[in-house]
Amino acid sequence: MKFSKKVVLEFPQHTWDQPIIYALNTKYDLMFNIIKAKITPRQEGVMTLELSGDKENFDKGIEFLKEVGVRVRFLAGDIERDEKLCTHCGLCTVICPTDALSLNRDTMEVSFDKERCVGCELCVPLCPFKAIIMNIPSHSQRNSLQNNRRGNKKP
Ligand code: SF4
Ligand code: SF4
User: Fold this and answer.
1) Are 61 and 53 in contact (CB under 8 A)?
2) Lowest mean pLDDT among 78-82, 110-114, 142-146
3) Are 40 and 101 part of one and the same domain?
4) Is 9 a residue whose pLDDT tops 80?
5) What is the CA(64)–ligand 1 centre distance, in A?
6) What range defines the domain where residue 135 resides?
7) 135 φ, ψ to 5°?
8) Atom of ligand 1 nearest to the CA of 91
9) CATH value at residue 107
10) Residue 134: per-residue pLDDT
11) Do 69 and 86 have their domain in common?
């Protein structure tokens, strides 16, 4: 059965330069589409990618990732920030590994750059004002997105 899921992979320092993603393809026949990747200042890596392939191979590939020390999370949706709730306290900027959340020291305002966000969700529980949420598409939205993708593939 064909299976596809977005996953967030966090690579500890010792794993980042190993051909782990390549092995997912060669050992488990999984296709991957890298959505975002970033090496943090501490030399750890965070990568969001879409993995697809046979469900059994998918599960084996995930097990393989865990065995080699990669932290794996499944991405349910997109990170959103509620501008009305955010007080620009700056707390989330301390934990964000990609600088998607950053503090402008001149204006003391926190900006959110969605393009840099890898969906690790570290900021979600940290925000005291619940200004950051994981926006999970509804079942009908997911169907509509899938239909659009299928439609886009037609010549
Ligand atoms: S922790 Fe919450 S309130 Fe504080 S800057 Fe970040 S999003 Fe805004
Ligand atoms: S989920 Fe939050 S902490 Fe993680 S990269 Fe996105 S903004 Fe930064």
Assistant:
1) yes
2) 142-146
3) no
4) yes
5) 35
6) 78-150
7) -85, 105
8) 1
9) 3.30.70.20
10) 84
11) no
Q: Tens digit of pLDDT for each residue in 27-62?
A: 999 999 988 888 776 667 888 888 999 989 999 999
Tell which of 59, 74, 89 closes a domain: 74
Closest CA to 145 of 135, 133, 132: 135
- Whether residue 104 sits in one domain with residue 62: no
Same domain, residue pair 43 and 62? yes
Nearest to 123 by CA among 146, 99, 104: 99
3-state DSSP assignment of residue 106: coil
Please return the burial class of 58, using the count of CB atoms within 10 Å of its CB with bins 0-12, 13-18 and 19+: buried
CATH of the domain at 37: 3.30.70.260
Same domain for 142 and 83: yes
**Which one of 80, 85, 91 would you pick to mutate in the ligand 1 pocket, going by the greatest count of ligand atoms within 8 A of its CB?**
91
Ligand nearest to the CA of 101: 2
Q: Is 117 in the pocket of ligand 2 (CB under 6 A)?
A: yes
pTM value?
0.63
